[in-house]
Each structure stands twice: as C-alpha cells, then as structure tokens.
Amino acid sequence: MDLFLSKIKSLLKDEFDEFLKYYEGENFKGLRVNTLKCTPQKLKSLLDFEIKPTPFCDCGYYIPNEIKSLGNSPLHHCGAFYIQEPSATSAVTMLDVEEGDLVLDLCAAPGGKSTQIAAKLNSTGLLWSNEIVKSRANILLSNIERMGVKNAVVSNCKPDVLCERLYGCFDKVLVDAPCSGEGMFRKNSEARAEWSEEHVKSCAERQILILNSAKNALKDGGVIVYSTCTFSEEENEGVITRFLSENPDFELEDAHVHFGRSTLEYARRIFPMDGGEGHFAARLRKKGTAYKTDSIILKKNKNDKMLENAFKFYDQIFIGRPFGERLEIVNNKIIILPKHYNFNTNGLNVLRAGVILGEILKNRIEPHHSAFAAAKPEECTSVADYDRNDENIKKYLHGEEIEVNSDAKGYTAVCVNSMALGFGKVSNGRLKNKYPKGLRVLR
Fold first, then answer.
1. How wide is the angle at C-alpha 30 spanned by C-alphas 413 and 206, nearest 5°?
2. What is the dihedral of CA 133, 135, 141, 147, to 10 degrees?
3. pLDDT at residue 291, rounded to an integer
4. What is the C-alpha end-to-end distance of the chain, expressed in Å?
5. Residues 24, 359: Cα–Cα separation, whole Å
6. CA–CA distance, 183 with 410 (Å, rounded to integer)
7. To 10 degrees, the CA torsion angle through 111, 371, 159, 60?
8. Which of 189, 212, 331, 395 is the most exposed place for a label (fewest CB within 10 A)?
9. Maximum Cα–Cα distance for the chain, whole Å?
10. What pLDDT, on a 0 to 100 scale, did the predictor assign at position 24?
11. Percent share of the chain, pLDDT over 70
12. Pick from 58, 57, 70: which is nearest to 29 by CA?
C-alpha cells in the first residue's frame, strides 16, 4: 500500500497527515431513510439508538459504530431504511432527480443509489436499474422489492447493448462506475489486495467505455452523473477530462452542492476528513433542449377470461388498484407494468418490470411477495399490523405461523409499525406464513 499512500500524499499535499488520522480511525457507518415507506421523524422514534444527519443527502444519517446486525431488524426487512455508506448518497443528490423523470441507473447493484432514486421519484416516472453481473442483479432486484419500489425495471445486460437499444430515452442517467475502490479499503480487504497501478489503469479504460455507452441513452438536455468510490485521479478527473474532450456536446456543470471539496471546478471529491469513506461525482449536461416525456396513452388489455379473473383477484386483495392497470400475464405470472414502460426489450434480459401481483396455479391465483412489499397498509383489504418488538414479528421473520386480530381474513398484509413487510393467509385467527424462505432470519 506504500504506492497508494504515496499517490494520496501527492494528491492531498498538506492535508495528507489529516487524511491518515481519519483513515486510521473508525469507519463511517450510515443509513438512508426510505421515504417511500417512512419519514425520518418516524424512524428516529422507532430506533433504539441515535442517528445524526450527514451532509450528503437529506435522508442520510450516521449511525453509531457499535451498532451490529442491523440487517436483521424488522425495520430493515420492511424497507424503512437502507444501510449505506454516508458519502455514497452524494451522487444521487447531484443527479437532482425530480418527480416524473425517466432515470437509468446503469451500474446499479446492490441497489443503494437505485432505491435512493426511487424515493426521489416517489412512484412517478420510471427507474431502470441495470447490472451486468447476474448474481448481483438478483441482489439488486431483492433490494428494489424490499424498499417497495413499484415503478422500476431491473435488467441484467451489457451497458453498450442496453444504451444503444434505449437510445435517447432518459432524462437522467447515473453511472456509478466499477472502480479500484480505494474509498472502500478500510472495510474491504479484498479491494486492498486487488489494488495495483495496472488495475487502476484498466478501471479507467473500462469507465470511459461505460460512460460513452451511457451518453447514448440520454435525451438532449439531459444529465449524466458519473461517480466512483475511489480517490484515483486516473479514474476520476482523468475520465471526465477525456470524456469531455471526446464529446463536445457535453459540459460539466455545477450541481450546487456544498459537501466535500471541488475539483475540475464543478466536480466533487469526498475524503474521510469530509465525513465519508470516499467518493467522487461529476454532473454532465448534454447540450440541447431538455424536454419531458408526455403522458403515454396506454392500450387496453385484451378482455379475455384470464385477465378478467386477474383483475377480480387484484380487487380482492388491494384497494384502488395501487400499482396501476397495465396487467400482463407472462408464464402464468400476473405482472403490473409501470406506466412509462413502453420499450422493445427483446434480448435485454429484463428480470422484472413493475410488480408481480400473483401466479396462476391450476384453479387459483397465489399472491406474490413483491406486491405486498410495495403496498401501503391502507391499500390492502386485510392488514395485520405489529410493533417492531412484537414476538409475532420475530416469529414471522423466522417463517412461523402467527396470531392475528379478528378483523384479518384471507390474504393479509403483514406490517411493522404500519409499513408493509410481506403477507400470509389467515384462517381461524392464525396466519400461514408466506414470507420468502430466502429472506427469513435464521434462529
């Protein structure tokens, strides 16, 4: 690591000793409140420890370093928050997502930035989250589902193929590029072991290729934010400078943020002494006139018997069709597509678009976990709501049957402090557990 530290010293000069002091100290730990399900005020009232705001996003908080196993908390399982390194939230803040935007997160796993974008969209517009590595794409999908996102598309596709096919479709694109991960060295020994000058250079070459792919998916007047979790000048300033020289139709612009420190005038760097493990982000604008996509007039589904039964089932378990009415039946799965999902996706390996309402099994329909995870309690016809410390919630997360109140019947949403967790089927005051086995907490 001597060469790495030598490069940091050259970069920071008089601040190198300050860097070392923080670098050799405790890691920064954080979470981001998921406003699709919870407010910061509510989460503060439910947690057993104090959280303090970070400067990187309006819903980001530091958590005490001694807090362990937070991922097993019922509040985590129901999507009240996402455990996220504090400075990692800076890139989406700089993207400045607005309701109604069509947004592409090109290198999206495990999903921290995607779910942050989704919260900003607030169930409007469209989020397309892509990950090239299949195993990581499945983790991304699981996090999208847990956080209750209903207007997302998750794909497992090469960036160049995806962006060429979706040419000019998006208002905003996030490229959180694979990098040498120097900002993660303190908590990731594997990243430290892989580091070399050659690795840094190969990362920079890959990053410029990804960024040049991403530009194709952007509308005129649209915005790309490029980010990494590394300190390397080759992967940060070097990539941006090269991209701008090769693409005169793009310009670096001020994101009007004040965290970290400026570089290249408008890009931002974050070091440990700035309150995070390490991040770089730059906001790029494509020249031209920005425009919003008009509302899409949707074609009505064929009124066949299967769809008719699907809509009846929809109305039996949810109130007011909260995911819209674009029902499609694919391989016996009833899928509710997002409003702005109108693409030819052949060959793009889309893992999911929207929400799965249920699966058709012989003479019945079995609900799907994703629909209940994305619903609000008031949108469900039957609800069993528990406090986060209730023994029934602990049993539910273990996969056991639990007791329910007398009002619950049939397919019932299981909630934690009025936030949807999953579902089960109630009979005679008992709820048969339908929480997915892969999500259960082992004793």
1. 100
2. -110
3. 66
4. 40
5. 52
6. 49
7. -20
8. 331
9. 73
10. 84
11. 96
12. 70
What are the distances in angstroms from CA 415 to CA 370, 378, 424? Answer: 14, 11, 11
How far is it, in rounded angstroms, from Cα 223 to Cα 119? 18
Residue carrying the six token digits 């999902």: 341
Taking each helix axis as running N to C, give the angle between helix 197-214 and helix 237-246, from 0 to 180 degrees, rounded to the nearest 10: 40
> Token pair of 324, please?
């819209």
Q: What is the mean pLDDT of residues 68-95?
A: 97
- Reported as a single tens digit per residue, the pLDDT across 405-422 is 878 999 999 999 999 999
Mean pLDDT of 38-54: 97
Token pair listed for 255: 């994101």
Indicate the length of the chain as a whole number: 443
pTM, full prediction: 0.95
Give the C-alpha separation, 440 to 425, whole Å. Answer: 17
Token pair for 284: 């790029």
Which residue's entry shows tokens 């893992």? 351
| HEC per residue, the chain | CHHHHHHHHHHHHHHHHHHHHHHCCCCCCEEEECCCCCCHHHHHHHCCCCCEECCCCCCEEECCCCCCCHHHCHHHHCCCEEECCHHHHHHHHHHCCCCCCEEEECCCCCCHHHHHHHHHHCCCCEEEEECCCHHHHHHHHHHHHHCCCCCEEEECCCHHHHHHHCCCCEEEEEEECCCCCHHHCCCCHHHHHHCCHHHHHHHHHHHHHHHHHHHHHEEEEEEEEEEECCCCCCCCHHHHHHHHHHCCCEEECCCCCCCCEEECCCEEEECHHHCCCCEEEEEEEECCCCCCCCCCCCCCCCCCHHHHHHHHHHHHHECCCCCCCCEEEECCEEEECCCCCCCCCCCCCEEEECEEEEEEECCEEEECHHHHHHCCHHHECCEEEECCCCHHHHHHHHCCCEECCCCCCEEEEEEECCEEEEEEEEECCEEEECCCHHHCCCC
Angle between helices 16-23 and 2-12 (to 10 degrees): 130
Which amino acid is located at 363 in the chain?
Answer: N
Phi, psi of 191 (to 5 degrees): -65, -40
Q: How far apart are CA 183 and CA 191, in angstroms?
A: 9
Rounded CA-CA distance 315/321 in Å is 7
- Quick one: tokens of 230? 């590394």
**Phi-psi category of 317—alpha, beta or left, where left has phi over 0 and alpha has psi -120 to 50?**
alpha
What b/e sequence results for 212-223 when a residue is b if at least 16 CB atoms lie within 10 Å of its CB, and e otherwise? bbbbbbbbeebb
Two structure tokens written together for 438: 């892969």
Q: pLDDT category, 300, cuts 50, 70, 90?
A: very low
> What tokens does 101 get?
């935007």
- Residues 99, 118: Cα–Cα separation, whole Å: 9
Query: Which residue in the list 157, 229, 380, 415 is annotated as catalytic?
Result: 229
Tokens of residue 379, six digits: 């949108």
Q: For residue 85, give both structure tokens.
A: 């390194």
